[in-house]
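Appendix B: a complete holo record

For completeness, this appendix reproduces one full record from the ligand-bound portion of the collection. The bound molecule is flavin-adenine dinucleotide. The inputs are the chain sequence and the ligand SMILES; the output is the full three-dimensional arrangement of the complex, encoded as structure tokens. No fields have been trimmed.
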Amino acid sequence: MSICYLKTANNALHCDVIINGGGMVGLTLALLLAQADYSVIILETNIKTPIAPTSTEIPSDLRVVALTQATRQLFESLDIWQSIASKRLGTMENIKVWDQALSGSVFFSALEAKEPDLGVIVEQSVILHALQAALQHYPNVQTIYDTPLQAYQISADRLMATMQNNSILSAKLLVGCDGGQSWVRNFSAIAVKERSYDQLAIVATIQSERPHLNTAYQRFNATGVLALLPLSDPFTLSIVWSVETTLGQSLMMLSQEAFSQQLTQEVEAVLGTLTVMSKRIQFPLREQHATSYIGERVALVGDAAHVIHPLAGQGVNLGFLDAAVLADILVQATKKHRDIGYDYVLKRYQRSRRMHNQGMIYLMRAFKEGFTHTSPLLGLLRNKGLDWVDSHAWLKQFFIQKALGK
Ligand SMILES: Cc1cc2nc3c(=O)[nH]c(=O)nc-3n(C[C@H](O)[C@H](O)[C@H](O)COP(=O)(O)OP(=O)(O)OC[C@H]3O[C@@H](n4cnc5c(N)ncnc54)[C@H](O)[C@@H]3O)c2cc1C
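The structure of the chain with flavin-adenine dinucleotide bound, as generated:
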């Protein structure tokens, strides 16, 4: 196992990989690399992120994510799945999707698909806690909080990075896991293709009058998409309501009571009266795709490389797969005594992930455009489309396999 060490010649802290950003994806990559015996430095600017790894009481988090089976398998292989699954895990056994204006609908069921479930809902703090707790066991990983990078340069066989307190870090590879506004991407001058969806997503926790029976609901109409995601308590759900920006802003101004009423109406009281239990938070929605996932001794992973619409709950699942693929490619390169920062090693990562993620970006764009378009013909098509999917078992199976990340 290699360990980070201070080299007296240039007073730089040496390691194999610097990970900029200790969010869900950055910590997953760190754990994958730690288990493969690499020395890793994680840099994280948000001092609020660490959660005492010994704490069993993790504060509840409004931000939840739907995880695919592929992500679950990854977490099982990292030995953190039990820790995640034991904390307020919501399970989707069924998903009902419908178009409000036109009454077309599809019902996906785990039973019908012969799967244990169609995905799980986890609070982000639970994932971060499990990763941070697991990383405590690896002396080859160091985390530095609140001292961001200000520059880096490439020397003969390493990357030398300067932090804002002028300390020097050196590594074979720098990985940007620093989210949609990635510093690494910007400093490396990697261009990003960007378009606003002209929507914002409102997130909150709600209670329902009737039990959710582990069913997720997703209602489309011309103004946006509203998802109700079942949490572990049978009467508690998380909402992600993606709506056109000006409508979203006026929904954010409503009182809790008025918002609850509007919400109940929007989903046609499918679970009886809905009541908002938490504050509401909003996220502007945009699509982003880095034109390259790699630079000289640099790789981008997770939202630093791609940001997609949350309507299919795939964003971070793609990021976890990026991390798994990159770690695997680095391990293979090391076995062949190759430098893990070399261009041809990093190109393998880009080839494996960029086209795949591009496909998901196009799919999300098509869904968003198709469902929010007001043209009567498109409306008819999407309505017929939903009913058609519902009546074809093989097509339902296809969508289920995609949603499970298979
Ligand atoms: C409303 C909504 C619902 C969503 N639901 C789902 C879902 O159900 N399923 C799903 O798969 N995805 C979902 N997503 C997408 C998911 O939240 C993101 O894909 C995920 O958070 C990306 O993780 P990340 O670690 O790549 O980036 P981030 O979560 O953005 O983490 C980046 C980290 O880097 C740190 N950082 C930033 N800049 C620096 C810097 N200069 N130096 C050091 N550290 C830095 C940040 O503090 C942060 O900790 C949803 C998104 C939204 C907005």
